[in-house]
From TrEMBL:
Keyword Zinc: yes
Organism per entry: Natronorubrum aibiense
Name the UniProt record assigns to this protein: SWIM zinc finger family protein
Superkingdom as given in the UniProt entry: Archaea
Keywords: Metal-binding, Zinc, Zinc-finger
SWIM-type domain: residues covered: 51-83
Region (Disordered): 1-31
Length: 207
C-alpha cells in the first residue's frame, strides 16, 4: 500500500501549558508518523529508530512502553498528529495526490486514484486532455469505472478505447464536452454538443 509519512519535524509547544515530560518530548523531538492502516502507525524517532504504535491498543514497541508500560512519547505523538490533522485517524491512510505530491487522507480500503483539493475536478471545471492538450469542460464525474462503461459507437469499453489503453482501466470516468457547440437559427445543433467520456487519470485540472 502506497502510504505517506508526515514531515519529520518538531511541533510547536502550546504556550502556558505545563506539559508532562513525555508530552513535551512528543512535541519537541522531530518525529515522523507513517500510517500503515489497521490502526497501526510507524513512528520514526529523532535518532532514526522506528517503532510500531498500535493506537487503539495503546501499545508501542519502544523500551519505554515495553519495559515501563508507559504511555510513551511515540503514542502521544501519534495522538497529537491525528488531533492536529497531520496524520490520518485509524481507518484512513495518507496517499499522495495523483497529480501532485500533497498527502490526502483516504479510507484505507479505497483503491481509486486520490486527488488533493486543488486537483479534484467538479462539473463546470476546465480540464486538459493529456493525450491531445485539448481543453474541455467537465459535465459529469462518475463513480463508474472505465472498464465498466461502453463506447457504443466503437463496440468497446472506455478503458479499451484508442489511447485510453495508456491509462488505468479501474479508475472512474469523467464526461466532458469540447467548447465548440454550434448555435443555429433553431437553437443548438445537437451533434455539436456531444459528451465524451474519459478515464479520470487522462484529464488534468487546468491550473
Ligand atoms: Zn514508544
Ligand atoms: Zn494535487
Amino acid at each position: 500500500m502506497n502510504t505517506t509519512a508526515s514531515p519529520k519535524t518538531p511541533l510547536p509547544v502550546p504556550s502556558g501549558d505545563r506539559l508532562e515530560e513525555r508530552s513535551r518530548r512528543a512535541r519537541t523531538e522531530p518525529m515522523s508518523v507513517l500510517p500503515l492502516g489497521d490502526g497501526l502507525y510507524e513512528v520514526e524517532s529523532a535518532s532514526d529508530h522506528t517503532y510500531l504504535v498500535d493506537l487503539e491498543g495503546g501499545r508501542c514497541t519502544c523500551p519505554d512502553h515495553v519495559f515501563r508500560n508507559a504511555r510513551c512519547k511515540h503514542i502521544r505523538r501519534v495522538a497529537i498528529e491525528i488531533t492536529e490533522g497531520r496524520t490520518p485517524p485509524p481507518g484512513e491512510i495518507a496517499v499522495p495526490c495523483h497529480d501532485c505530491d500533497v498527502a490526502v487522507f483516504v479510507d484505507e480500503d479505497d483503491s481509486e486514484p486520490c486527488y488533493c483539493e486543488e486537483h479534484t475536478i467538479w462539473p463546470g471545471d476546465t480540464v486538459v486532455d493529456r493525450e491531445t492538450g485539448d481543453r474541455l469542460t467537465v459535465v459529469d464525474v462518475s463513480v463508474l469505472r472505465a472498464d465498466a462503461v461502453r463506447v457504443d459507437a466503437a463496440g468497446c469499453t472506455v478503458a479499451e478505447y484508442g489511447t485510453n489503453e495508456n491509462y488505468e482501466p479501474d479508475v472512474p470516468v469523467v464526461g466532458a464536452i469540447y467548447p465548440h457547440a454550434t448555435v443555429a437559427r433553431h437553437g443548438v445543433v445537437p451533434e455539436s454538443l456531444k459528451v465524451y467520456v474519459f478515464p479520470r487519470t487522462r484529464l488534468e485540472k487546468e491550473p
